[in-house]
Design a protein that fits this description.
Elements lengths: L1 H5 L1 H7 L9 E7 L5 E18 L11 E4 L10 E15 L2 E9 L4 E10 L5 E12 L2 E4 L3 E3 L5 E4 L3 E10 L4 E4 L1 E2 L5 E18 L2 E21 L2 E17 L7 E9 L7 E8 L3 E18 L2 E5 L12 E6 L8 E6 L6 E7 L2 E5 L6 E4 L4 E2 L5 E2 L6 E3 L17 E11 L3 E5 L2 E5 L3
Antiparallel strand pairs: 1-5, 1-19, 2-4, 2-18, 2-19, 3-8, 4-7, 5-6, 6-11, 6-12, 7-10, 7-11, 8-9, 11-14, 13-14, 14-15, 15-16, 16-19, 17-18, 20-31, 21-22, 22-28, 23-26, 23-27, 23-29, 24-25, 29-30, 29-31
């Protein structure tokens, strides 16, 4: 009956040559008191701009007026400028954050995902701020001054702050191979993680985001088994030289006060208003980081791997509810958006995939080996819903759900779309606890 339900092409996919390893899924919190980030960041932001005096005939008649050219004229006129905002930051931070690590210390493999590190640990660091101005000659009145053009004018600004300095893993889980040391309880690994980094800089009181900038983060680390829970240390050096073109499309600095020292004669201040957009940001970043993190069992449900639409026009979904406790043994896996009265079977695996199934309209979200609940073939109801309640004492091939283990589930079902075929739901992932 099962062979008829699944079809020969899929039965071959489901046959298991070995049982899954004892993988355990852990959530690691970075210990700020033991972790360190040494960061040096230089940025140059190109800001095509205009400045104009803050004179207003009604509200500020005594304000500064600006006029183009050497001899001046009437009115209050905008002056075109090319601004380059430079920041120079160097700091030692106490990083915070977290990541997930699915570890099989017996099989010497793992999967690292969702790395999210705040290199400043929620604090901010001082950044030396300067601005370079290039403009054509113009005059100001109240105060009266001449600003000769054609030569960049360097203006040091007050020390500003940099904050929310983050490295965030992008994409899916990254496989990791562990190498056991002679001590037995110590495991070494090295891998490369795709990340994005970003931060915010305070520009004259206005927070300006920089990034995200993508990159590939090479890291090395160790896993130490502390009783039943692991401890991870990660080290990496991350250097980036990148130019971001139009990094904040639509971003506008509008009427930002810009007090500009007079040049000829010096000693006074012209009160200008700045309008600017951000054309590009050049980033030069050097980071050396040491992270220490303690692991706890990661419990909960989530979903992954979108399904293809079935004959209802919708894609089948699988949702896990109930308890993640292996002692409670109260897990429910509910498939929805299926064709009515569709014959369905529940599958599970400790690994993941995303591959088309031969002679089927579905995809498998489960990697080898895949186990099937042969004795729990179900029919969806007229609303296209079917629920499965795994018997923890009678799992396929004598498997047991262990605390800390992660299992992935998917439902395979029959369909008429328009001829006789089959399809699958999305997948549900369950992280079990005690």
């Amino acid at each position: 009956m099962i062979r008829s339900l699944l079809g020969r092409s899929f039965v071959g996919l489901l046959l298991c040559s070995s049982l899954p390893g004892a993988a355990q899924d852990f959530r690691f919190e970075i210990a700020a008191g033991e972790s360190l980030a040494d960061v040096s960041a230089l940025t140059v932001t190109a800001l095509p701009s205009t400045v104009i005096g803050d004179h207003d005939a009604t509200d500020n008649p005594g304000g500064t007026r600006t006029v183009p050219g050497l001899f001046g004229g009437g009115g209050n006129n905008p002056i075109q400028m090319d601004l380059a905002l430079g920041t120079d930051s160097s700091f030692i931070g106490a990083p915070t954050g977290n990541f997930l690590f699915d570890l099989d210390l017996q099989g010497l493999v793992g999967n690292l995902r969702d790395l999210d590190v705040d290199l400043l640990g929620g604090a901010s660091a001082d950044s030396t701020l300067s601005v370079s101005m290039l403009y054509s000659t113009f005059r100001s009145f109240a105060p009266d001054s001449l600003y000769p053009g054609g030569v960049p004018f360097e203006l040091p600004l007050a020390s500003q702050s940099i904050s929310n300095f983050r490295l965030v893993q992008i994409g899916g889980a990254v496989p990791v191979v562990l190498v056991q040391s002679a001590e037995g309880g110590l495991f070494h690994f090295a891998t490369a993680v795709p990340v994005e980094f970003s931060f915010e800089v305070d520009f004259l009181g206005q927070l300006t985001p920089v990034g995200p900038v993508p990159g590939l983060l090479p890291l090395t680390g160790t896993v130490t088994r502390m009783n039943s829970l692991p401890r991870v240390q990660i080290d990496f050096t991350y250097d980036v030289q990148e130019q971001l073109l139009d990094p904040l499309s639509g971003f506008l600095i509008d009427d930002l006060p810009l007090p500009l020292p007079t040049i000829l004669p010096p000693g006074e201040t012209a009160n200008l208003l700045l309008d600017a957009t951000i054309a590009s940001i050049d980033v030069d970043l050097a980071t050396t980081v040491h992270l220490v993190a303690e692991g706890v069992l990661n419990c909960g449900f989530d979903t992954y791997c979108a399904a293809t639409p079935n004959s209802t026009g919708q894609a089948g979904m699988l949702i896990a509810t109930g308890s993640t406790s292996v002692e409670d043994a109260a897990l429910t896996l509910t498939a929805t958006k299926l064709p009515g009265h569709s014959m369905s079977v529940l599958l599970m695996s400790q690994s993941r995939a995303n591959l088309p199934i031969l002679n089927s309209q579905g995809i498998t979200c489960l990697g080898d080996p895949v186990l099937r609940f042969s004795g729990q073939v179900r029919l969806s109801n007229s609303a296209g819903v079917v629920a499965f309640h795994p018997d923890f004492d009678d799992l396929p091939q004598g498997i047991q759900f262990l605390p800390g283990s992660t299992w992935n589930f998917q439902v395979f079902h029959r369909d008429m779309n328009p001829q006789s075929t089959s399809n699958t739901t999305s997948a549900a992932r369950v992280h079990f606890c005690l």
